[in-house]
Amino acid sequence: MKRFLSISLYAAILCLPVQAVLAGEKKETPPPPAATKEPAPSETQSVVIDKEVEVQVKMIEEPAPAPAPKVKPAVKAEDTEAQDAEDAPQEKTQTHWGYTGEGAPHHWGDLDEAYKACKAGTMQSPVNLEGGQDVDLPEISLSYEAVPLSVTNNGHTIVQNYAPGSTMTVGGKKEYELMQLHFHTPSEHLIRGMAAPMEVQFVHKAEDGTLAVLGVMLRAGRENESLQKIWAAIPPTGQTSENDKVGINARNLLPVNLDYYRYDGSLTTPPCTEGVKWHVLKTPVEISEDQLRAFQSLFPVNARPVQPMGRRGFFE
Question: Is the residue at 40 inside a domain?
């Protein structure tokens, strides 16, 4: 019995240090704290500018190679333009107009509903000016100012844009402001059945919206200095060339004699809007052969054929 107690006591003594050690380790090594989730930054903390947002998204997503990003990148401007360029030819085939092929003048009225006047109109331009009624027409008075050079190549013609401030007055009554001038080869209007090599048209607009166009025939002769300034600045198609240091005065593209033929017509390009007051000068202006060829190299033909006069008369 004593021997059994001694053995039990001895075993208890041997186990005591191990338990003490284990107990001490538990006290010195506290249980690891539970993992806490960092609060997600708020929009106002992370969204400062777009670049910062992109950087933060990359930092989070880059470590995970497998999944693709869920948010699509913003469409860049060049991507949109490229898509527009691909779509444009298909869209434009429905409304494209020109002077040859499927877009030629005799097709204009069928290309777009907005162009129906080109086919169904009864007061269309240009016309052959022959056999007019001789009357005393009101005097044209021009007050044209020099403006900075602003030349647009719209793919159909060359346009000199005109800043506000230059006017045409007819009979001292109605005033029209000059908006722009542009060119056609050959001339759109015929005088007694004959076309001039070119025609320049000065487009004006009154306060009530009425359009008045002054047409001037251009024939080969001496070089025109003002025209040469315009020709020297012709930009690529669809662009505008501007130069504040070069002045253009439309009066230098007009003759001294302002006697004219007068009739009511339309725009000579789509949408062929009617109600335009036409004044075609009887006296031509000279330009050089080189100036004529320079324009024709860009636009071999950009003139609408003459339209029926119908019951309209014209005055001279």
Answer: no
